[in-house]
Design a protein that fits this description.
Strand content: 25-35%
Shape: elongated
Number of helices: 5
Structural class: mainly beta
Largest sheet: 8 strands, antiparallel
Distance between the termini: 35 Å
Order of helices and strands: EEEHEEEEEEHEEEEEEHEEEEEEHEHEEE
Helix content: 10-25%
Radius of gyration: 25 Å
Length: 385
């Protein structure tokens, strides 16, 4: 997405699909990147989530003053687009809403019930006008029923539309909850749907659409094969911090050794540490992109899940733990004995990155073949080696 200088915000409405550049099914990471690059058009964006359960909390981007973008909790996909305040205010530039070749609303002409009927046709009676993939309401959230356009005045063709909501079109007779995950759609094409983790081995990557070929990355995979399988990384970063070497068995760094380097795939939510001498994968780092955490929005969420060992040869459903599970659940696969026996150390990101966050201190838990970065029982990062 690239920003185009605008004197006003002009958006095309496609029911069940999009509003201008905002497409249902798009990732939270990609949407925030677009808004960051488009500060001229969107100078203020507020991020809202439940701090008590940040991993699975739905996220709302309040794009002042017109838009609310609701993202699903687990997979952080754009679920609902809400348009409010269709008339310009002192908080933002004029707003024009189009549908096909028709202007639905503009700074000169508010959208009324008669205009909706003229463009979309008749619909069932009720407090809102519902059509497949879009509905129109006559009351703002939290608006006093005794003021402004009343819901009860829905039969008045001059009622002014206060809110437009775009969601995916439901299949016939399909009952869907407002907080259900987003169904697979074109906006997800080429993006990660799941990463199956096998400790001491590697990861198996599944992509959208579901018919896409599976990609397997193992510890020891060459950098050349990594480029062929995933494409070039968005960034190559050479390792400069060797402080963790003090915890190695020898405590020493080999003189003259080639510098290791990272392949950063921000859009997949993962990094690969490549050996500077052999140019093979030494470590795989998977990021959960938890709102409120120090590394939030650096990476797209990687929907990883750890696959345990089957009980026997006939067990086709081995135990699994997913990114949204608490560390006590995940540790049962990584260290079945006891979480209390797992070695750990504290990591304070304020020291390295001058962050001023209440949750800047995290804990590193070491397992056989894996390290988990944990904050309040939530796993922020999983590293395989």
């Amino acid at each position: 997405m690239q920003e185009t200088p605008l004197l006003s915000l002009e958006y095309d409405l496609v029911p069940g699909h999009s509003l201008g550049p905002f497409v249902l099914g798009s990732s939270l990471w990609k949407t925030l990147e677009y808004l960051r690059e488009s500060k001229g058009s969107y100078p203020q964006v507020n991020v809202k989530f439940d701090p008590e359960n940040p991993v699975t909390s739905p996220v709302i981007l309040h794009v002042v003053p017109y838009l609310d973008l609701l993202f699903s909790g687990a997979y952080q996909r754009l679920h609902t687009i809400s348009v409010r305040r269709l008339q310009p205010t002192g908080l933002g530039m004029p707003f024009t809403l189009r549908y096909k070749n028709s202007i639905l609303a503009s700074s000169d002409e508010p959208l009324r019930k008669s205009g909706v009927t003229r463009v979309f046709g008749p619909t069932y009676p009720g407090d809102v006008m519902r059509y497949p993939g879009v509905w129109f309401g006559f009351q703002e959230d939290g608006e006093d029923l005794n003021k402004g356009s009343k819901v009860g005045q829905g039969d008045d063709r001059t009622c002014e539309v206060r809110k437009v909501v775009i969601r995916q079109k439901a299949l016939e007779d399909e009952a869907r909850d407002v907080l259900d995950e987003v169904c697979e759609c074109s906006a997800m094409s080429g993006e990660l749907s799941s990463a199956i983790v096998k400790v001491h081995d590697g990861i198996t990557l599944h992509f959208h659409p579901s018919t896409s070929p599976v990609v397997r990355i193992r510890l020891g995979t060459s950098a050349e094969d990594l480029n062929c399988d995933l494409g070039p990384p968005l960034r190559v970063h050479y390792k400069e911090d060797d402080r963790m070497n003090i915890h190695a068995s020898s405590g020493l760094t080999e003189e003259g050794a080639e510098t290791d380097y990272f392949y950063n795939y921000f859009h997949l939510g993962m990094d690969f540490l490549i050996s500077g001498s052999a140019h093979k994968v030494k470590k795989i780092i998977l990021h959960t992109n938890v709102p409120g955490s120090p590394a939030f929005q650096r990476y797209m969420r990687c929907p990883w899940e750890i696959q345990g060992n089957p009980e026997d040869d006939d067990d086709d459903s081995p135990p699994r733990a997913k990114f949204y599970d608490k560390i006590d659940v995940i540790s049962q696969l990584l260290n079945p004995v006891s979480l209390a026996t797992t070695p750990s150390m504290e990591l304070d990101r304020v020291d390295d990155e001058r962050l001023c966050l209440p949750g800047s201190k995290t804990q590193l838990l070491g397992f056989d073949g894996a390290v988990a970065e944990v904050s309040v029982a939530n796993v922020l990062t999983l590293m395989l080696f």
